[in-house]
Amino acid sequence: MSHPVDLVRLDQINVQFGHNHVLQDVNLTLHKDCITTLIGPNGAGKTTLVRIVLGLIRPTRGNVWLQPNLRVGYMPQKLHIDRTFPLTVKRFLQTTRVKDASQMQTALDDVRAGHLMNHSIHDLSGGETQRVMLARALLREPELLVLDEPVQGVDINGQVELYDLIARIRKQRRCGVLMISHDLHLVMSSTDHVVCLNHHICCSGHPEHVSNDPSFIELFGKQGAASMALYNHRHNHNHDTHGDVIADHPHPEEAQRALHKEAHNKECNH
Ligand SMILES: Nc1ncnc2c1ncn2[C@@H]1O[C@H](COP(=O)(O)OP(=O)(O)OP(=O)(O)O)[C@@H](O)[C@H]1O
């Protein structure tokens, strides 16, 4: 089992805006080749935590360590470009330091948007816009990719595709990924590590472990938590013609327990 490579270490991070204590004693380590997803209710401090990682704000208290010269690719929540400002995808990608056409084409191909190079940025669908923003973040050849709600404004099929794409990019590039998500169902299959944040870290770990954690259930309600547990239920037992579980196969609960154990061992592929 190889040792995980740390990209970012946050130690006892506190952030206060006036009297608003937004982050309290947050410890978080981001690893190479590991997708970490931040989930939590509105106003929980997720974007604030991401901004700490990006160095956009300083914590009121606590330490931030980044691997020296860490290359970070950032995909913001939304693109704010005036519709009256004519801008092609190519020109948008050129707003990075990269001007090389083949590099831009590769980044677009990697997010399955190779055909959009000369399209106007204003005419793209929600899913296409997110892909182009992802391509722009990839142009930095990031060792850490930071994605703030990457599937916002994308229809449900597009959301599944985007999460698959992110998982594939991680596999290809072996970068670390930090993303914020509200998609309690969808995120489960494409993340290694979930951090449930509500000003402090309520619970964290492998998605299947977190979905059964009492503090997670308290935060998202039984229904939300149960739907995720259901989503994660892999059908690793057989039924007879009446629908009963066949005895010589593991009972679902036993199988689920075994799965948790296996999942703990496999977290972050290490
Ligand atoms: N620069 C700032 N100055 C003052 N207050 C801020 C600032 N940035 C964020 N806040 C406050 O901090 C709290 C957390 O905001 P943040 O955007 O981190 O939450 P979030 O979990 O990302 O929310 P959402 O899911 O709604 O995007 C909010 O109450 C917000 O108003």
Automatic annotation (TrEMBL):
Organism: Neptunomonas qingdaonensis
SUPFAM superfamilies xrefs: P-loop containing nucleoside triphosphate hydrolases
MF annotations from Gene Ontology: ATP binding; ATP hydrolysis activity
Domain of life of the source: Bacteria
Domain ABC transporter: 8-223
Database matches in SMART domains: AAA (SM00382)
Keyword Heme: no
Protein name from the UniProt record: Zinc transport system ATP-binding protein
